[in-house]
Amino acid sequence: MSNGHHIVVLGAGYTGMFAAVRLAHRTRRTGVRITLVNPTGRFVERLRMHQVAAGQTLAEHRIPSMLAGTGVRFVEGTATAIDPEARTVTIGGDMSLGYDTLVYALGSSTDTGKVPGADAHAFTLNSIEIAGRFAERLTEVAAAGGTVTVCGGGLTGVEAATEIAESHPGLQVTLISQDEPGGMMGDRARGYLHRALDRLGIKVESGARVAKVLPEAVELADGRIVPSAACLWTAGVKVSPLAAEAGIATDERGLIVVDGSLRSVSHPEIHAIGDAAAVRLAWGRIHGTCQSGLPTAQYTADTIARLVRGRTVKPFRFGYFHQPVSLGRRDAVIQFTKADDTPARWWLTGRSAVMYKEFVSGSPLLTYRFSKRMNVTTVVSKGGRATRRPAV
Ligand SMILES: Cc1cc2nc3c(=O)[nH]c(=O)nc-3n(C[C@H](O)[C@H](O)[C@H](O)COP(=O)(O)OP(=O)(O)OC[C@H]3O[C@@H](n4cnc5c(N)ncnc54)[C@H](O)[C@@H]3O)c2cc1C
Predict the structure, then answer these.
(1) Which one of 63, 167, 213, 360 is CB 3.0 to 4.6 Å from 121, fit for a cystine?
(2) What residue owns the CA closest to ligand 1's atom 53?
(3) Where are the transmembrane segments (predicted)?
(4) Class of CATH domain 6-108+239-317
């Protein structure tokens, strides 16, 4: 299946962009055509969205420029439907794209639908525009000496709270979390993270569940009211309903269920990667991170290139190796991990951790650039003995 074979990649986030660029390099001289679809021409650095929320301006990266020289065609538009039987994707209301192979890389976004008031009164990091509006609101709140809440104490919530507190020292920032912030880290890294929250004057409401977001406050499940002139919501994720609506097999969260080669179990010509794929390995389920997403994109590009040439493929293997967390611009903590993301012995803090985290955040863009000409690997750990399985 080579000459004229058309591969459509849906979503030009971290994984879709990598898959498209690597595929172009891997399938050169095979006659394969590649089309990449994304709603905007700007590449969104989601890893830096908390910086936008704190008022920083990011460098603008244009997708057509990033694809220059690859031969990948870029379509600016939103996929609104997939017909897996006809093998077509509808873009917007009126454009139809036929495919032989589909790479589904639609990512995920923060879910504001589960708690009353979150959708109406909270901001998210779901787009540069929303994060930018939150930053504008912060400036007003800071001028009035008000309070801000960050709901969700996962790594994104911690990064956002510390970034905001560091750039607006006059603001009272409250981090509200059901679980302990940094709970997945080892004792020492977690202790360091809490000392940083303390140093930045962030009030932590740990073990607290948000019952309702109000226009000027957050109501907790135990009835307490936390003042909040601006609320940033980072708790919970949702995915696009497109796959489920198309009858592609999905799990209870709407992620595409894949086999060992990251192909849909119901439609093998559809490959799912990144946050939109339900990937199970011998040590457990992958959770949505760039760290795991880039290897899924790399693997899928290589797999499709092999299938196009009629070759066999080996199953996907991956293991986690770090939890990098920025604590504002001047501090960070890195917890190194075992393959299943539980803490290992090693951890890093301070200046070297800041440099490490900055390298992690900038490395996808470097990877795309070099992947036009060579096979750059994003895999640090294959997950050890646990992920060894026979070829598929
Ligand atoms: C503030 C923040 C910090 C983070 N920090 C880290 C970190 O330090 N390390 C880490 O590993 N992970 C981190 N993550 C998680 C990481 O950003 C995600 O796991 C990663 O972006 C997933 O990549 P993806 O390609 O699956 O999805 P995305 O990068 O979200 O890309 C999805 C793309 O699909 C497009 N799209 C959506 N719907 C459609 C449609 N219908 N049609 C066409 N295109 C569509 C979107 O516009 C987007 O461009 C962080 C996330 C946030 C929000």
Answers:
(1) 213
(2) 46
(3) 6-24
(4) alpha beta
